[in-house]
Queue: 3 jobs
Job 1
Amino acid sequence: MQVALLAGGLGGARLAPALSEAVGRERLTVIANVGDDLEWMGLRVCPDLDSIVYALAGSWDRERGWGRVGETFRVRDALGALGAPSWFGVGDGDLSLHLARSLLLGSGKSLGEATRNLSRRLGVRGVLVVPASDRWAQTRFVTRDGRRLAFQEWYVREHARPRIRRVVLSRAAASRAALGVLRRADAVVLGPSNPVTSIGAILALRGVVAAVRRAKLRIAISPVVRRRPWRSASVAHHARARARVLEAEGQRDRAVAIAARYADLVDWFVLDEADEAEASAIRRIGLQVVLADLLDEERLSRTLLALLRRSQR
């Protein structure tokens, strides 16, 4: 069985390694959001894509929620001392990846080709990581005070504080690789990532929704765990940002609201055990609900594996 996981950075980086062990490395492909990408000092930076690659390579800083373990920031600090913008925290090791990727892109390679090359060199084995689009497909915001901000400007520089009037998702073409993976997939999993700016940004790309619908089994995982404390500052920041974005969509940061967004695309919704009280409302939307510990990626992966096996009977 071939499984396609659609994911953003934090949710994808946390789930992909455990899921790859559960279903088999050769059977999993991760389609990563590129709506968060930015140009930094002339370099192409892909935060979600890179977090997932680092996690699969065993070098992701799980506590911080981005970058590499043991990272240093001498270049960032030196740039700041020279008066250059230093709000985006690119580490020294991370910088080497952005330089190498930009060289490959400059030589005519696509983002997907560059990602395959660099993933292999970083030590990713078996699992394929594919950018959702090979084109620039940035997510942008119109804030309530009238500013237009790219995702990282709002999320990092502004600390996700400005209230959002409108979310603008790119309608660029999905990458051929991503569409090919989806057409061959027996199961598609919408990861526990932001339903608007991560999963929503992937689904907004041309061709993706139609390709997802071809899969026999389609599962969405709730990114919301309401009745348990946040584990880290990065998770708390993600949760606050998700609430801000959903507010702009006229929705609350609740599992049932997110399930409703996916109701016409998936059949199963994975809900945290602590939020079981919302299960009946989600079933009324027309989705089948399965409970899991969403903060334990290994247990969650075993739950997903059980669903995959059930669908093959």
Job 2
Amino acid sequence: MLKKLNKQPPAKIIASIPDTAYMVSKDGRVFRELKPTVIQERHYYNIILEGVLRRVSKKELIEVASNV
């Protein structure tokens, strides 16, 4: 199952790198927008969790994020 996310304040995006999907936050972290995979009209995201690439539904991500 999914790990709970660390409780950190929301990242403030200060710049986006031109011609890429990457953004830089105020604390120096680099982010990339995840694009969903749509299967039978349901949205899934491919995420590496515990060193394994997993397909996680949008519903599961929202549930985990609301528990943080």
Job 3
Amino acid sequence: MRSSDTTLGRQYETVGKTALLRHWASQSGIATTYWVAERELPTYQRRRFYARLLGVPLEQAPIFETWPDLWLSVAQMLDGRSHVIILDELPYAMESDPAVLSALQHAWDQHFQHSQVRIFLCGSQVHTMETMLAGSSPLFGRMTGQWLLRPLPFGTLPTFLPHWSAEELVATYAIVGGIPAYLEWLQPERGLVGNLRDVILAPGSMFLSEPTLILSDEIRDPRVHRTIVQAIGRGAHTLNEISAASFVSKTHLRRISSGSRSCGWSSAGCPRRCRRPSSSARARGATTSAIPSSASTSASSRRCRTT
């Protein structure tokens, strides 16, 4: 890394971004301020951030009226010092005050660009994080790195589920993928069948509510997307089948399908008899990520089937 950096990190919830960043910071030997935005008023967000920077209780931190005021104070405090600033779940701060990015742009240009400060911008709302790279973003051209954190590969499952058979591990990966949090929710001593019955499909299980939570975080109106995921979970895979099962027009479905593939939530394949994958009527759709599809519907969950 250079002496000063602005790095973008994005991932879906529960992939492990926070743990990875905090571990790196602890091993770097550099003073670090880790702050996670919450859905709250911007004045409160700023005060919490500065309290973290000072290492004092919230009540002892000053109140800043604007983000430029806060960044000016941060720059004066860190003048000439090496420091890592991790801004996690930044989209929540953007929701509270859209000016947060332009304020950060000004702070970078005026105070941090040639300093010893490294800033990491992180978030679980992948689409919102990607907009920071667009030409219309105040931070366009200022990022020195970006990472999309992927789920763990299949080979890591024995670390979470020792003594499980190869068949159980394959089935588990088909259900929850390589999401660290989901793997930690499982109880290794129960085995696969026990986890399906007592953990994944248990009333009130986080596995059952997670798909809705993820869709609600990424999409303004998740109802249509959830209906489509349910249709795929029940066995509809062609465009015609999904449209009929979800009552969504093919035109609308094509637009949604494109967005879902860019998020990594679904894929479009083509059976051998289909010459062109672009032949939408014959192309087959399937969910590819464990995040929106695991236990996505009670019907598909009761069959212990993933798609």
